[in-house]
Amino acid sequence: DQAPSDRTILNWYHEFQRNNLSVEDAARSGYPRTAVNDETIDAVRAIIEDDPHSTYEQIQDSLGITSSSINSIIHDYSNLHEVCARWVPHQLTDDEKQFCIQFCRDSMERFEGGQSRRVFDIITADESWLIQQQKSNQKFGCHKLIYDQPKFIDTKVQASQANGGDFLHDIRFNQVHTIGTWWDGNCKMLRGIQFNDDNAMLNALEQAIDNQLTKDDFKNCFDDWFIRMDKCIDADGQYF
Length: 240
What we know:
By secondary structure, this protein is α+β, with helices and mostly antiparallel strands. It folds into 2 domains: about 5-90, Orthogonal Bundle (Arc Repressor Mutant, subunit A), CATH 1.10.10; about 90-240, 2-Layer Sandwich (Nucleotidyltransferase, domain 5), CATH 3.30.420. About 45% of the residues lie in helices and about 15% in strands. It has helices at about 5-15, 40-50, 55-65, 65-75, 95-110, 180-185, 200-210, 215-235; strands at about 80-85, 85-90, 120-125, 125-135, 140-145, 150, 160-165, 165-170. It has a 4-stranded antiparallel β-sheet. Strands 1-2 form a two-stranded antiparallel ribbon. A hairpin with a 2-residue loop joins strand 7 (about 160-165) and strand 8. Helix 2 (about 40-50) crosses helix 4 (about 65-75). The model is unreliable at about 125-180 (pLDDT under 50).
């Protein structure tokens, strides 16, 4: 069991044939196991605390350690896990638990446990992108709907097209729609289609939304949401 593998012995054979008789390990790329130390652990924690959306690549570029070291620090030393591309602690603080409970109670009361018609005014996603190709310069513009947290809107949804930080167009849909629903269920059908101009793309988008989604589609989206609110309250704000 202690003998070297066949592949290792074969490598030695080839090295000896090239008159390389050294028994020392050759220098190689990569980082030593000592990359996981108190200094790098604190540095990784600081990066994630500053931006919970940080990626392995960003941390690796910043600290110069391998992804395996980052993975070990995050999971073995910092007790974090990934939820929707955001690093969150396994254990919530008492204040965080109370916030979850209070939000669920307020929402259950405001929307009568999901029975209120105001449920259809809820925008649940925090961000969604629709990509179009700009023919003039082969760059990509996008439509972006941004909400920092669940918002409650009484009338209409407005989306703005942004390209290089400049807002080009505003769109107002005739009905309130759940972003995640119409994106996953309908807007992806437009993927790969090339439009000659902005208006053609916007018309296709509005048609996809208005023709495909029904009121029942939206209601079904929220049924599980209110069930999860009840579970959150029963779990005293813990993950479940």
